Amino acid sequence: MDLSVVGRERGPWTRSWTSDDALLYALGVGAGQDDPTAELAFTTENTAGEPQRALPTYAIVLAQFGGPQLGLTGVDFTQLLHAEQSLTLHRPLPVAGSVELTSMITDIFDKDSGALIVTSTTGTADGVPLFTTRSSVFVRGAGGFGGERGPSGEYAAPERPVDARLRFRTSVNQALLYRLTGDRNPLHSDPAFAAAGGFDRPILHGLATYGITVRLLLNEFCAGDPSRLSTVQGRFTKPVTPGDKLVVNAWRDGHDAVIFRTANPAGDVVLDRGRAVFTA
C-alpha cells in the first residue's frame, strides 16, 4: 500500500442533486417502507401540508462519488469494508442543489489484521460550509506494515436500560434499491463478487444500515425534523444481510444527544459506538 497518499488533497469538484435524488435516497434507507402514509416529507414532493425535506445522511452519498480518485494502489477491493462514518452538518441539507467538495486521506492506520484508511471530505455551497464527513474503510489483510495503530472509539453503550428500542425489517431487495443512489459496489449485488470476499451472499451497504439507523433516531427523538441533526458518528462491526430485522438501542446522553448501537436478529451488533447530537 502506498502511504504517500496521506495528506494529498483531491478536488474541488462539484456535485449536484435533484429532489428526485433525495426521494430515491429516502426510499433506499427505508422511509415509508413500513407505512407508505408516514414520512411523506422524505418520500414525496407534492403532499398537502408536507413540504419535501432531505434526510441529512444523504450528504454522505453526495461526498462519495463524482470526484477524482484518491490514488490508492495495492488494495484488494474484495477485502475492503466500510469501517466508520461520521457527519457534521453546518446547516440543513436542501432537497436539491449543488455542493463544491474537497477530500483528503488524513490517515492510514495499522490494525495488524488490516489497514484503516481515513478520508475527510468537506462540502461548501454558495461559499458557505454545508457539511463535513469523515469515512474510514478497513482493508483486510493489509496491516502489519509498522504504522500507528490509531485511536479507539469512545462511545460505549451505557450499563443501564435503554431509553428507546427501535425496530426495522430491511427488505430482501434493500441493497438493490440502495445501490441506485450511486454505490454500485458489486459486493452488494453480485453473488460471485461477494463470495470472493468471503460472504455467502451479497450484503447490505454499510451506509444503508447507517441511514436507516439515523432515520429511526430522527423520528424518535426529533419528531422527524432533519434540521435538528447536528452530528452523528458510528462504527460498523458486522455485515447486514438484506431481509434482516434491525434493532436500534438508544440511550439519552444529556438533553441533546443519544448514544446508540444497532443489532441484527441474532443479537450481533452491526453498528456500534454511535452518537448523534441534536439541536433544540
Question: Helices and strands in order, then pairings?
Answer:
Blueprint: E1 9-17, H1 19-28, H2 40-43, H3 58-64, E2 80-89, E3 97-110, E4 114-125, E5 128-140, E6 164-169, H4 174-178, H5 191-196, H6 206-221, E7 229-236, E8 245-252, E9 257-263, E10 269-278
Antiparallel strand pairs: 1-3, 2-5, 2-7, 3-4, 4-5, 6-8, 7-10, 8-9, 9-10
Could you give a short description of this structure?
The protein has 280 residues and is an alpha+beta fold.
Separate helix tally: 6
| Widest sheet, order of strands | 1-3-4-5-2-7-10-9-8-6
Share of β-strand residues = 25-35%
Mean pLDDT: 92
Shape, per Cα inertia axes: globular
Helix content: 10-25%
- Can you tell me the residue ranges where pLDDT is under 50 for at least 5 consecutive residues? none
Largest sheet: 10 strands, antiparallel
Number of strands: 10
If you had to describe this structure to a student in words, what would you say it looks like?
The protein contains 6 helices and 10 strands. By secondary structure, the protein is α+β, with helices and mostly antiparallel strands. β9 and β10 (269-278) form a beta hairpin. The model has no long low-confidence stretch (mean pLDDT 92).
List keywords for this structure.
about 15% helix; alpha+beta; 10 strands; ten-stranded antiparallel β-sheet; globular; single chain; about 280 residues; 6 helices
